[in-house]
TrEMBL record:
It is a peripheral membrane protein. Its EC number is 3.6.5.4. Belongs to the GTP-binding SRP family. FtsY subfamily. It comes from Thermosipho africanus (strain TCF52B). The gene is ftsY. This is Signal recognition particle receptor FtsY. Involved in targeting and insertion of nascent membrane proteins into the cytoplasmic membrane. Acts as a receptor for the complex formed by the signal recognition particle (SRP) and the ribosome-nascent chain (RNC). InterPro entries: AAA+_ATPase (IPR003593), P-loop_NTPase (IPR027417), Signal_recog_particl_SRP54_hlx (IPR013822), SR_rcpt_FtsY (IPR004390), SRP/SRP_N (IPR036225), SRP54_GTPase_dom (IPR000897), SRP54_N_sf (IPR042101).
Length: 294
């Protein structure tokens, strides 16, 4: 299945509930008070959020187009237009996955391992979520499935030590990519953020500019709550990209627009299903077309 088809399928719920209605409301018309109210409601209901919704409506008016539907498309593309490409520019290239438990972090680490293995890269998966034994086992299954090297210690071990071993292994064995699956839950927010910082400090002893990417995993189903969590992570960690998971499981896919507008961090990948191939690099044009017109 092509990327566009995949986006179309994954965004089906959001399109059928909300965005698919935009064309008949706006096509060939100027934005008047009535149509404005209608699309405002659809945007809010799909979790675009008040701030981004107001921005979108104002921007459509500013564009003064004859066809408000075309203007809407243009504005959505403006918001989602960031450089989403994840370039592997170093060897080893270290990617740290952060986010709350249940957001799809481990699954996404596994899917990313598959994505990179397929392009011929060697991958090391590191179980830095030592908080739960099940998380270590789950990552191990992904490592086997994707023929990646698996680095783990026991439950309760120091997560930074796992990260250090993974990076050391990658250097000595000349592996291309290290993916660190970090914990999403510790006793307090402070502990969690301290742990993430410690991991970064320790791997810098081996590779000064690592981690090269810090991907924050957000569950689209949690909508505006997910956005609030993201804001907390952003305060403490330098996030370089977002992975928005479970878009297939929600009608409120408008959260992608809220995230792009309010966080200003590029969405780099989206999860469109549970399968190993259901993680796709984000593409604004495919995304907007699939949202509005699938
Ligand atoms: N439908 C759908 N399900 C997904 C997607 N991504 C992840 N999941 C599912 O979400 C659930 C939670 O994913 P995990 O990877 O275990 O989440 P986690 O953040 O690592 O959480 P812990 O394992 O508790 O640390 C699993 O059942 C995944 O299969 C997606 O894009 N679409």
């Amino acid at each position: 299945m092509g990327f566009f088809e995949k986006f179309k399928q994954g965004l089906k719920k959001t399109r059928e509930s909300f965005f698919g209605k935009m064309k008949s409301i706006l096509s060939g018309k100027k934005l008047d008070d009535e149509t404005k109210e209608e699309i405002e409601e659809l945007l809010i209901l799909s979790d675009v959020g008040f701030e981004a919704t107001e921005y979108i409506l104002n921007r459509i008016e500013e564009l003064k187009g004859e066809d408000a539907y075309e203007s809407l498309k243009k504005v959505l593309l403006e918001i989602l237009n960031f450089n989403s490409e994840l370039k592997i520019e170093k060897k080893p290239f270290v990617i740290s996955m952060v986010g709350v438990n249940g957001s799809g972090k481990t699954t996404t680490a596994g899917k990313l391992a598959e994505y990179f293995s397929k392009s011929g890269k060697s991958v090391v998966l590191a179980a830095c979520d030592t908080f739960r034994a099940a998380a270590i086992d789950q990552l191990k299954v992904w490592a086997e499935r994707t023929s990646s090297t698996f680095i783990a210690h026991q439950e309760g071990a120091d997560s930074a030590a796992v990260a250090f071993d993974a990076v050391s292994h990658a250097i000595s064995k000349e592996k291309d990519i290290v993916i660190l699956d970090t914990a999403g839950r510790l006793h307090t927010k402070k502990n969690l953020m301290e742990e993430l910082r410690k991991i970064n400090r320790v791997i810098k002893k081996k590779i000064e500019d690592a981690p090269h990417e810090v991907l924050l995993v957000i569950d689209a189903v949690t909508g505006q709550n997910g956005l609030q969590q993201a804001k907390i992570f952003k305060e403490f960690v330098d996030i370089t990209g977002i992975v928005l998971t479970k878009l297939d499981g929600t009608a409120k896919g408008g959260i992608a627009i809220a995230i792009a507008k309010e966080l200003g961090i590029p969405i780099k990948f989206v999860g469109l299903g549970e399968g190993v191939d259901d993680l796709k690099p984000f593409d604004a044009e495919d995304f907007v077309n699939a949202l509005l017109e699938g």
